[in-house]
Protein 1
Amino acid sequence: MNNRNYYIHLLILCIIQILILNHVHIGSYFYINIYILALYVLPHKVKGIVSLLIGFLLGGLIDLSCNTLGIHAAASTFVAYLRPYLSRDMNEETEEYTQNNSKTLELGWFFQYTLLSTFLFHIILVFLEAFSFREIGTTLLRVIASTFISEIFIMLYYFICLKENKK
Amino acid sequence: MKEIIRLIKKYQFSLFFILLEIICFSLVIRENSYQRAIFSQHATTFFGYVATLTSGVEEYFHLRATNKTLAEENTALKNKLAAYHVPGDTLPPPVHDSCTIYDYHQAKIINGTYNLTKNYLTLNLGKKDGIEKEMAVCSPEGVVGLIQDMSDHFSVVIPLINTQSIISAKIKNNNYYGPLQWDGDDYRYSYLNDIPYHVEVHAGDTIVTSNYSSIFPEGIPIGVVEEVSQANANFLKIKVRLAVDFRRLTYVYVIQNKTRSEQQQLEALNYHE
C-alpha cells in the first residue's frame, strides 16, 4: 500500500471510530475498536520508533475523543510494539515478504494476525480500564466479547475497502 | 560511555516502548478519577506499611519528649479529677450512654511532611478502627488537623500546616470567630482572617476552636496571638503561634463527633437558600 492510500485509510478509520463506533453501546461487554486496523496496515517501511509514535498518537487521539486519557494510548502503543514480532512469527519466508508488500493483505494470514493483535490489544485496554484483578472473570469475558465484535468489524472493513484496493 | 550508547541504540525500540507506556500509565492515573482512586488506595496501604517499619525505630528517639507531655497531661487530668473528688468518697462508675458526644481514639503518627506547602500526616488507624472522613485530630497540646482519607489500616491527616486546610477558630476572650488558614511559609505560625477591624486583639490572646464547627469540640487550643496587623480596610490579619509543634508530634487523638451526621442531616433539610 502506498503512502497516500494509507493516509486515506487512516483518516476514514479515525472518522468511523470517533464519530460512529464510540457512540455505539451494545451492553457493557462490547467495545468496538476498529481504529487499530490502521496500525496493522501501516506501510512496511515505517519501522521502529516512528511506528511506536504513530501508535501512541493514534491511541491518544481516540483517548481525547472519549475522555479516557492514556488507556487507548497504552494499548495501541503495545500493538505497535508487537507488530514486528507478530508479523515475523506468522511469516516464515521473511525475505520474500519484505519484497512483496501485498502479502499483508492475504486473507488467511491477515485474519490470524489481526485476531491475535486485537486480542492482545483488548487485554491491555480492558484491564487498564478495570484497573483491578478483583472481578477477573467479568473482565476476561469483556476482553473476549470486545475482541470478537472488533474483529468482525475489522474483517468487514477488509472485505469492503482493502480487498478492492489490491485489485 | 560508548558501550552504553551502543546498548541504548541496540534496544532503542524496546526502551522507547517502555518510555511511552510509562507516559500512558501516568496519564491514566493522573487524568482518570476512578483509576487514580484505586491507585492511591493501594499506594497508601503500601507506603503505610513501609512507614510503620521506619517509625518503629524512630519513635525511640522521641521517648523523652513523649513521656514529658504525657506526664504533663496526666497531672492536668488528675487536677481536674481532684476538683470533683469528695474526700472519703469514690467516684460513681462511668456511665456509657448516648449523652457522650465525642469519642476519642488514640493514634500514632507514622509518617508526615513538614516543609512543603501541602503537608500531610499518616496515622496508624484506619477504617477498621472506626476512623471516618473529616474526623478531628488533636494532640494533648491542641489541634492537629482533619482526617482526609483512609484505607483499612491507615489514614491521612490534612494538618493545620497545609495551605488547603481551613478551620473555624475564635478568640477565646471575646468569641469573635474567623477562618484559620496557613500561608505555607513557617510551620510554627498560621493566620486568623476575617476578624473585623474594631475588635481588640492583643498579642498573647488564646485562639481556640469555635462552636461553629461540627468536627472539633469547642475550646480546644489552637495557639496564641503573636502579632496583629491590618489586612485591608475592614479586617485584621492575626498571626497565630500554633500550640502544636508539628516537628515533634508522635501521639495524637482522633475525635469522633457522634452527633455530627444527625446535625448535618437536619441542616441539609432546613438550610435553604
Protein 2
Amino acid sequence: MGFREKNAWFCGVCILLIFIPYFYFSFQYPVEHVSVFLIAVVGLVVLLAGFHAINSIASKSIREAGDVPQADELDKLLELRASKWAGIVLAVLVLVWSMVAMLSVPIEGVSHATLQQPGAAALNELDFTISGTQALFWINLMFAGFVISNLVYYGRLIASYRGFANG
Amino acid sequence: MDKIIIHNRIRELRFKAGEMTQQALAERVGITRQTVIALEKGKYYPSLELAFRIARTFAIPLGEIFEVADTAPKKIKSKKRTQ
C-alpha cells in the first residue's frame, strides 16, 4: 500500500472516529456542543499530525528520501476524480439544505415568535425569530454536509487505489 | 468509436535491464511504485511525457515499449432504407 493510500485510509477513519461522536452529541445538545467542536477539530489535527510522523518514521522510502513522495500523474488524476465526486455530493447537499432551510426556517421562526407573544396580533413573516438551538442545529446540518463530502473524497480515493492494486 | 487498447513491455524490459525493480524504475522516471504496477497491468495509460521518460530510461524508441492492440471494429448496424 502506497503512502497516499495509507494517508487516505487514515484520514477517512479519523474523520469517522472524530465526527460520528461529535454529531451524535451536537444534535442532542446543540448549545453545549461549541466546546466539543473545538475538541473535535484539535483532536483531528493531533491525530493526523501523529500519523504523518509515525508513517514518516516507519516508511523506508520516506526515510531515505527525507520527504514524503511527490504526487505523480496517477495520484493527481485520482485526486481530481475524488474531488469531482466530493464536489458533486457537496453541491447536492448544499442545494437540499438550502431548499429545506428556505421552506422550514420561516415556518418554524414564525411559530416560535407566536409562542413567545401569544397575545400579539397577526405577525408579519419578517418578524419571525429562531431560537439558538434551532440555528445551531441548522449550522451543524450544513457542517455535516461538508464532513460527508470529505468522506466521499477519501472513500473514492481509496476505491480508486484499491482498483489499481487489485486489478 | 472503438476504445484503443495499449499494451506495453515495461515488465519484460525491466527484467532485461538487469532485473530492475519496480521501485528502481519508479525512482528513475519520477513516479510511485503503485503507478508502475498500474502501468504494467495495463490499468493506466501514461501521459506522453511519462511514456517518453520510460523510453529514455530503457534507451529504446517509444514504439518498442507501447503498442496498440488489434481491436475488432464495432459492427455498424445497417439500416434498411425504405424507398
